[in-house]
Design brief:
The complex is a heterodimer of chains A (110) and B (113). Chain A has 110 residues and is mainly β. Helix content of chain A is 0%, strand content 56%. Chain A contains no helices and 11 strands. In chain A, strand 9 and strand 10 form a beta hairpin. The mean pLDDT of chain A is 93. Chain B is mostly beta strands and 113 residues long. Chain B contains no helices and 11 strands. In chain B, strand 4 and strand 5 form a beta hairpin. The model of chain B has no long low-confidence stretch (mean pLDDT 96). Classes of the chains: A mainly beta (110), B mainly beta (113). At the A-B interface, strand 5 and strand 10 of A face strand 4, strand 5 and strand 10 of B.
């Protein structure tokens, strides 16, 4: 069964702290995606990771991919309140079928 | 501006009354897809389309139909809606080929009573 597991599901953190969200997937895939969703809004694409060892950074967010471990991470550096949102990872097969994780709801406290 | 639009944004209907949710994109992208989002389940793919007249099932296609007669439009059809299809629906579009991101529409909140 094709599965994506994210953890933690909920994360409450203080501003200025660092933390990592983990995304494990069940099949060999070298296409991994991260999305952000604000409450009541649509999804916004954050990162597309295409190969083993890929690392991408945007502001305080950095995503990486380890295809051998079937693991992607989203690292948050020095969190700020504006990063409060739900973060989803997803992978796709070569046929463009997408499997999403259940999401990590992040709350950054001032 | 790159855009994916969905209509309607909100819909309350009754069991068995056929409905269509429209999705349109202005980016000339080949790939379009429909998802449903339910609490605790993330997004689940319903159908996707690689190009005009090419559609394929996602993970949860039962009870849904799609068509892709034009590149810009990808309507989602519920022939006989049931309460378990109450959900938040998103349409998305992207270019085919590796490395391209999906652009999502604003969502359609459907309630079936």
């Amino acid at each position: 069964e094709l599965k994506v597991e994210q953890n933690p599901l909920f994360l409450s953190m203080q501003e200025g702290k660092n933390y990592t969200i983990y995304c494990n997937y069940s099949t060999t895939s070298d296409r991994l995606y991260w999305y952000r969703q604000d409450p009541g809004k649509s999804l916004e694409s954050l990162f597309v990771l295409l190969s083993n060892g890929a690392v991408k950074q945007e502001g305080r967010l950095m995503a990486s991919l380890d295809t051998k471990a079937r693991l992607s991470t989203l690292h948050i550096t020095a969190a700020v309140h504006d990063l409060s949102a739900t973060y989803f990872c997803a992978y796709s097969s070569g046929t463009y079928k997408y499997i999403f994780g259940t999401g990590t709801r992040l709350k950054v406290l001032a | 501006e790159a855009q994916v639009t969905q209509n309607p944004r909100y819909l309350i209907t009754v069991t068995g009354k056929k409905l269509t949710v429209t999705c349109s994109q202005n980016m000339n992208h080949e790939y379009m897809s429909w998802y449903r989002q339910d609490p605790g389940l993330g997004l689940r793919q319903i159908y996707y389309s690689m190009n005009v007249e090419v559609t394929d099932k996602g993970d949860v296609p039962e009870g849904y139909k799609v068509s892709r007669k034009e590149k810009r439009n990808f309507p989602l059809i519920l022939e006989s809606p049931s309460p378990n299809q109450t959900s938040l629906y998103f349409c998305a579009a992207r270019r085919t080929g590796a490395g391209y991101e999906q652009y999502f529409g604003p969502g359609t909140r459907l309630t079936v009573t």
